[in-house]
Amino acid sequence: MKILVTGVTGQLGHDCVKELEDRGIEVRGVSSRDFPLTEPDAVRRFMLSYRPDAVIHCAAYTAVDRAEEEEARCMAVNAGGTRALAESCRELGAKLLYISTDYVFPGDGEKPYEVNDEKGPQNVYGRSKLAGEQAVQELLDAYFIVRISWVFGLNGRNFIRTMLQLSETHDVLTVVDDQIGSPTYTRDLAVLLADMIQTDAYGVYHATNEGFCSWAEFAAEIFRQAGCGTSVKPVSSSAYPTKAVRPKNSRLSKRSLDEAGFLRLPRWQDAVGRYLIELDTIKKP
Ligand SMILES: NC(=O)c1ccc[n+]([C@@H]2O[C@H](COP(=O)([O-])OP(=O)(O)OC[C@H]3O[C@@H](n4cnc5c(N)ncnc54)[C@H](OP(=O)(O)O)[C@@H]3O)[C@@H](O)[C@H]2O)c1
Predict the structure, then answer these.
(1) In a domain, 285, yes or no
(2) What is the position in ligand 1's atom list of the atom closest to the CA of 125?
(3) Residues 77-128: pLDDT tens digits?
(4) Could you tell me the distance, in angstroms and rounded to a whole number, from the CA of residue 13 to the centre of ligand 1?
(5) Ligand 1 centre distance from Cα of residue 179 (Å)
(6) Is 244 left (phi over 0), alpha (psi -120 to 50) or beta?
(7) 35, 55, 58, 65: residue to mutate for ligand 1 pocket, most atoms within 8 A of CB
(8) Is the CB of 247 under 6 A from ligand 1?
(9) Which of 62, 52, 63 is nearest to 17 (CA)?
(10) How far apart are CA 26 and CA 165, in angstroms?
(11) Cα(178) to centroid of ligand 1, in Å?
């Protein structure tokens, strides 16, 4: 099986390529340099020349706040680029695994979202990712849509890295406590995606590390496990207005994952621990 992974220079794409390579599967990772999603002809040319059996589509415009001012570009990458990729997959008969987000939901209430619950993205990025989902579903039968949230991985910036950096200069950090969701460690997710892409259990799934928390609880756990003395002062998100509105409820139900027989990811606290060890290892010469 020959697999193309988009977004190899990002957090998730990097770990997907590594996981597939470790399993001895033929894989090629691409970024915007060799696979510009805003250029449908270039996408098609690449696809027809490489001819993958399957694509794990991790690449996206991910700057959630900037997207509010760059709507056209965000849409071109996440909706237009995904459409172009899905068209090529259809032409080649390749399966497509599209990575999506909790931001496709409105984020109200407290119940975990089921995969088919009503959508209602609250920001440009969420609308662009939902449009990507719709293109995939319209064009293909052999697809997986996997919604994830609060991503952290070794290959890029993320909440854990920001918190650790801020802890070097702050004894107390204020962090919002009224947005609830689940962190997702790219290394754990890559194991599931590598399993999934080799099946024909097509459909829509939610996949994050297990357990729910607020950003404030997430930060407190990072500081506890990292052994730094920084404490967390929980605040409401109204104290931290951002350009893009964030959902308060990002809880995602794993029912479809369970029903298809896929294994859930480990608990998020366990993932944080392993990530901190990995970060420490790469810092040492
Ligand atoms: N980060 C989160 O918290 C989060 C939460 C929910 C869902 N997701 C989804 O998870 C996936 C992976 O996220 P991530 O955090 O790993 O992303 P990331 O680290 O921000 O990396 C984004 C990747 O997309 C590529 N890319 C951006 N614009 C492109 C373009 N025009 N053409 C081709 N490639 C382009 C980048 O390549 P270059 O380096 O060449 O620009 C990079 O490899 C995305 O689909 C994202 O929407 C992320």
Answers:
(1) no
(2) 47
(3) 999 999 999 999 999 999 999 999 999 999 999 999 999 999 999 999 999 9
(4) 8
(5) 22
(6) beta
(7) 58
(8) no
(9) 52
(10) 37
(11) 26
CATH number at residue 204: 3.40.50.720
Torsion (CA) 41, 44, 47, 48 in degrees, nearest 10: -110
Mean residue pLDDT of the chain comes to 97
Instruction: Report if residue 88 sits inside a domain.
Output: yes
In a domain, 76, yes or no: yes
Domain that includes residue 99, residue range: 2-158+184-209+250-266
Q: Would the CB of 37 count as within 6 Å of ligand 1?
A: yes
Pocket test for ligand 1, best of 136, 151, 184 (most atoms within 8 A of CB): 151
Within a domain: 168: no
Cα(86) to ligand 1 centroid in Å equals 17
Overall size of the chain counted in residues: 285
User: Which residues, in sequence order, are CB contacts of 272 under 8 Å at separation 6+?
Assistant: 160, 183, 185, 218, 221, 222, 225
| Domains identified in the chain, total number | 1
Would you call 125 a catalytic residue per the annotation? yes
Q: What is the pLDDT of residues 198-234, one digit of tens each?
A: 999 999 999 999 999 999 999 999 999 999 889 999 9
Question: Which of the residues 61, 103, 113, 125 is marked catalytic?
Answer: 125
